[in-house]
Design brief:
The chain has about 230 residues and is α+β, with helices and mostly antiparallel strands. The chain has helices at about 5-10, 20-35, 40, 50-60, 65-80, and strands at about 35, 85-90, 105-115, 115-120, 135, 140-145, 145-155, 155-165, 175-180, 205, 215-220, 225-230.
Length: about 230
Protein backbone atom coordinates (compact mmCIF):
# COMPACT_ATOMS: atom_id res chain seq x y z
CA UNK A 1 0.00 0.00 0.00
CA UNK A 2 1.28 3.42 -0.99
CA UNK A 3 0.63 6.48 1.21
CA UNK A 4 1.31 8.93 -1.63
CA UNK A 5 -1.21 7.21 -3.92
CA UNK A 6 -3.77 7.29 -1.11
CA UNK A 7 -3.17 11.02 -0.61
CA UNK A 8 -3.43 11.57 -4.37
CA UNK A 9 -6.78 9.73 -4.29
CA UNK A 10 -8.19 12.29 -1.85
CA UNK A 11 -6.40 15.30 -3.36
CA UNK A 12 -3.97 15.83 -0.49
CA UNK A 13 -0.23 16.21 -0.05
CA UNK A 14 1.97 14.75 2.67
CA UNK A 15 1.47 16.93 5.79
CA UNK A 16 4.57 18.61 7.18
CA UNK A 17 3.70 17.19 10.61
CA UNK A 18 0.83 15.25 12.22
CA UNK A 19 -0.97 18.21 13.79
CA UNK A 20 -4.62 19.28 14.07
CA UNK A 21 -4.60 21.28 10.84
CA UNK A 22 -3.34 18.23 8.95
CA UNK A 23 -5.93 15.98 10.60
CA UNK A 24 -8.76 18.35 9.70
CA UNK A 25 -7.52 18.62 6.13
CA UNK A 26 -7.22 14.90 5.35
CA UNK A 27 -10.51 14.18 7.16
CA UNK A 28 -12.43 16.69 5.03
CA UNK A 29 -10.71 15.73 1.79
CA UNK A 30 -11.41 12.06 2.42
CA UNK A 31 -15.12 12.76 2.85
CA UNK A 32 -15.21 14.84 -0.33
CA UNK A 33 -13.42 12.16 -2.35
CA UNK A 34 -14.50 8.76 -1.02
CA UNK A 35 -18.26 8.20 -0.72
CA UNK A 36 -20.10 5.98 1.69
CA UNK A 37 -21.36 3.08 -0.43
CA UNK A 38 -22.29 -0.58 -0.13
CA UNK A 39 -22.54 -1.47 -3.81
CA UNK A 40 -20.47 -4.62 -3.29
CA UNK A 41 -23.25 -6.16 -1.21
CA UNK A 42 -25.99 -5.15 -3.66
CA UNK A 43 -24.07 -6.60 -6.61
CA UNK A 44 -23.56 -9.94 -4.87
CA UNK A 45 -19.92 -9.39 -3.97
CA UNK A 46 -18.15 -10.39 -0.79
CA UNK A 47 -17.19 -7.74 1.77
CA UNK A 48 -13.52 -8.11 2.71
CA UNK A 49 -11.83 -6.30 5.59
CA UNK A 50 -8.22 -7.06 4.72
CA UNK A 51 -6.52 -3.68 4.34
CA UNK A 52 -4.75 -4.46 1.03
CA UNK A 53 -8.12 -5.42 -0.50
CA UNK A 54 -9.80 -2.29 0.85
CA UNK A 55 -6.89 -0.21 -0.45
CA UNK A 56 -7.31 -1.74 -3.90
CA UNK A 57 -11.03 -1.03 -3.87
CA UNK A 58 -10.89 2.57 -2.64
CA UNK A 59 -7.52 3.85 -3.85
CA UNK A 60 -6.79 1.83 -6.99
CA UNK A 61 -10.34 1.32 -8.29
CA UNK A 62 -11.70 4.65 -6.97
CA UNK A 63 -14.65 3.07 -5.19
CA UNK A 64 -16.21 4.04 -1.89
CA UNK A 65 -16.95 1.89 1.12
CA UNK A 66 -18.99 1.56 4.29
CA UNK A 67 -17.79 2.40 7.79
CA UNK A 68 -15.46 -0.56 8.36
CA UNK A 69 -13.80 -0.01 4.99
CA UNK A 70 -13.55 3.79 4.97
CA UNK A 71 -12.60 4.23 8.61
CA UNK A 72 -10.43 1.11 8.65
CA UNK A 73 -8.34 2.31 5.72
CA UNK A 74 -8.33 5.90 6.99
CA UNK A 75 -6.94 4.61 10.29
CA UNK A 76 -4.05 3.01 8.38
CA UNK A 77 -3.38 6.30 6.56
CA UNK A 78 -3.40 8.33 9.78
CA UNK A 79 -1.03 5.91 11.50
CA UNK A 80 1.27 6.05 8.47
CA UNK A 81 1.30 9.85 8.76
CA UNK A 82 2.30 9.68 12.43
CA UNK A 83 -1.04 10.08 14.20
CA UNK A 84 -2.03 8.09 17.30
CA UNK A 85 -5.27 6.31 16.38
CA UNK A 86 -7.68 4.17 18.42
CA UNK A 87 -10.55 2.21 16.87
CA UNK A 88 -13.88 2.42 18.70
CA UNK A 89 -17.14 0.50 18.46
CA UNK A 90 -20.27 2.62 17.98
CA UNK A 91 -24.01 1.92 17.94
CA UNK A 92 -26.15 3.90 15.49
CA UNK A 93 -29.61 5.12 16.51
CA UNK A 94 -32.27 4.10 13.98
CA UNK A 95 -34.05 7.03 12.33
CA UNK A 96 -37.36 5.18 12.20
CA UNK A 97 -37.18 2.71 15.09
CA UNK A 98 -35.47 5.05 17.54
CA UNK A 99 -33.50 2.07 18.86
CA UNK A 100 -29.73 1.69 18.91
CA UNK A 101 -28.04 -1.03 16.91
CA UNK A 102 -25.83 -3.68 18.52
CA UNK A 103 -22.19 -3.14 19.53
CA UNK A 104 -19.87 -2.94 16.50
CA UNK A 105 -22.81 -1.62 14.46
CA UNK A 106 -20.46 1.18 13.37
CA UNK A 107 -16.71 1.82 13.49
CA UNK A 108 -15.30 5.23 14.47
CA UNK A 109 -11.81 6.52 15.26
CA UNK A 110 -10.29 8.47 18.13
CA UNK A 111 -7.12 10.43 17.41
CA UNK A 112 -5.02 11.71 20.32
CA UNK A 113 -3.00 14.87 19.68
CA UNK A 114 -0.92 16.46 22.43
CA UNK A 115 -3.10 14.87 25.10
CA UNK A 116 -6.38 15.93 23.48
CA UNK A 117 -8.78 13.45 21.92
CA UNK A 118 -10.68 13.90 18.65
CA UNK A 119 -13.51 11.87 17.15
CA UNK A 120 -12.97 11.07 13.46
CA UNK A 121 -15.48 9.42 11.13
CA UNK A 122 -15.16 9.29 7.34
CA UNK A 123 -17.49 6.30 7.00
CA UNK A 124 -20.94 7.35 8.19
CA UNK A 125 -23.82 7.37 5.72
CA UNK A 126 -25.93 9.94 7.55
CA UNK A 127 -25.58 13.12 9.58
CA UNK A 128 -21.80 13.11 9.44
CA UNK A 129 -19.41 15.88 10.41
CA UNK A 130 -16.73 17.25 8.10
CA UNK A 131 -13.90 17.94 10.55
CA UNK A 132 -12.95 16.02 13.72
CA UNK A 133 -15.08 16.60 16.83
CA UNK A 134 -13.36 17.34 20.12
CA UNK A 135 -13.98 14.76 22.84
CA UNK A 136 -12.70 17.13 25.51
CA UNK A 137 -15.86 19.25 25.71
CA UNK A 138 -19.61 18.75 25.92
CA UNK A 139 -20.22 22.18 24.43
CA UNK A 140 -21.62 22.81 20.93
CA UNK A 141 -19.23 22.60 17.97
CA UNK A 142 -20.51 24.39 14.87
CA UNK A 143 -19.90 23.05 11.37
CA UNK A 144 -21.60 24.78 8.47
CA UNK A 145 -25.38 24.50 8.83
CA UNK A 146 -25.17 22.09 11.74
CA UNK A 147 -23.99 22.07 15.34
CA UNK A 148 -22.64 18.95 17.02
CA UNK A 149 -21.91 18.02 20.61
CA UNK A 150 -20.65 15.06 22.62
CA UNK A 151 -22.87 14.23 25.59
CA UNK A 152 -21.46 11.93 28.27
CA UNK A 153 -23.47 9.53 30.40
CA UNK A 154 -21.23 7.36 32.52
CA UNK A 155 -18.76 5.66 30.20
CA UNK A 156 -21.01 6.19 27.19
CA UNK A 157 -20.54 9.08 24.76
CA UNK A 158 -23.39 10.28 22.53
CA UNK A 159 -22.84 12.18 19.28
CA UNK A 160 -25.73 14.61 18.79
CA UNK A 161 -26.55 17.36 16.29
CA UNK A 162 -28.87 20.29 15.67
CA UNK A 163 -29.92 21.78 12.36
CA UNK A 164 -29.87 25.47 11.52
CA UNK A 165 -33.63 25.70 12.01
CA UNK A 166 -33.54 24.61 15.68
CA UNK A 167 -30.10 25.81 16.71
CA UNK A 168 -29.97 26.77 20.38
CA UNK A 169 -33.10 24.86 21.37
CA UNK A 170 -31.80 22.60 24.12
CA UNK A 171 -34.50 19.99 23.69
CA UNK A 172 -33.99 19.51 19.95
CA UNK A 173 -30.69 17.65 19.87
CA UNK A 174 -30.83 14.55 17.66
CA UNK A 175 -28.79 11.51 18.68
CA UNK A 176 -26.65 10.00 15.90
CA UNK A 177 -24.75 7.20 17.62
CA UNK A 178 -23.24 6.24 20.96
CA UNK A 179 -19.83 4.79 21.79
CA UNK A 180 -17.36 4.15 24.58
CA UNK A 181 -13.65 4.89 24.52
CA UNK A 182 -12.70 1.23 24.97
CA UNK A 183 -10.03 0.42 22.34
CA UNK A 184 -10.90 -2.21 19.74
CA UNK A 185 -8.26 -4.32 18.01
CA UNK A 186 -8.56 -4.30 14.19
CA UNK A 187 -8.51 -8.10 14.05
CA UNK A 188 -11.42 -8.34 16.45
CA UNK A 189 -13.76 -6.43 14.16
CA UNK A 190 -13.90 -8.98 11.34
CA UNK A 191 -16.69 -11.01 12.88
CA UNK A 192 -18.99 -8.00 13.18
CA UNK A 193 -19.46 -6.94 9.55
CA UNK A 194 -23.18 -6.10 9.05
CA UNK A 195 -24.07 -7.93 5.83
CA UNK A 196 -27.57 -9.48 6.25
CA UNK A 197 -29.81 -7.94 3.53
CA UNK A 198 -32.49 -6.92 6.01
CA UNK A 199 -30.16 -4.41 7.68
CA UNK A 200 -31.00 -0.74 6.89
CA UNK A 201 -27.36 -0.18 5.86
CA UNK A 202 -27.87 -2.24 2.73
CA UNK A 203 -30.72 -0.08 1.47
CA UNK A 204 -28.45 2.95 1.21
CA UNK A 205 -26.43 2.59 -1.97
CA UNK A 206 -24.20 5.61 -1.82
CA UNK A 207 -24.02 8.92 -0.01
CA UNK A 208 -21.66 11.78 0.68
CA UNK A 209 -22.81 12.83 4.19
CA UNK A 210 -21.73 16.48 3.95
CA UNK A 211 -24.92 18.48 3.75
CA UNK A 212 -23.19 21.86 3.82
CA UNK A 213 -20.73 21.09 1.00
CA UNK A 214 -21.74 21.62 -2.62
CA UNK A 215 -21.11 18.12 -3.87
CA UNK A 216 -23.25 15.19 -4.91
CA UNK A 217 -22.70 11.64 -6.11
CA UNK A 218 -24.91 9.23 -7.98
CA UNK A 219 -24.48 5.51 -8.58
CA UNK A 220 -25.54 3.40 -11.57
CA UNK A 221 -25.61 -0.38 -11.54
CA UNK A 222 -25.04 -2.40 -14.73
CA UNK A 223 -25.03 -6.04 -13.66
CA UNK A 224 -22.05 -6.50 -11.35
CA UNK A 225 -20.46 -3.22 -12.47
CA UNK A 226 -20.89 -0.03 -10.44
CA UNK A 227 -20.39 3.34 -12.12
CA UNK A 228 -20.00 6.43 -9.93
CA UNK A 229 -20.57 9.97 -11.19
CA UNK A 230 -19.78 13.21 -9.38
CA UNK A 231 -21.36 16.56 -10.20
CA UNK A 232 -21.89 19.90 -8.38
CA UNK A 233 -25.21 21.24 -7.23
Amino acid sequence: MDVQKYLNRIGSTVPAEPDLDALRSVHTLHLLSVPFEDLTVHSGGRVELDLPLIYDKIVTRHRGGFCYENNGLFSWLLCSLGFQVTMLSAQVKGLISGYYGPPFDHLVLMVTLQGRRWLCDVGFGGAGFSVPISLETSGPQAEGHRVYRIRKQGDMHFLEWQGEENRGADGDWKEVYKFTLDPQAPGGLHGHVPVPPELPLLHLLLQIPLHHFETRWTAHMHGPQAHLHHFPY
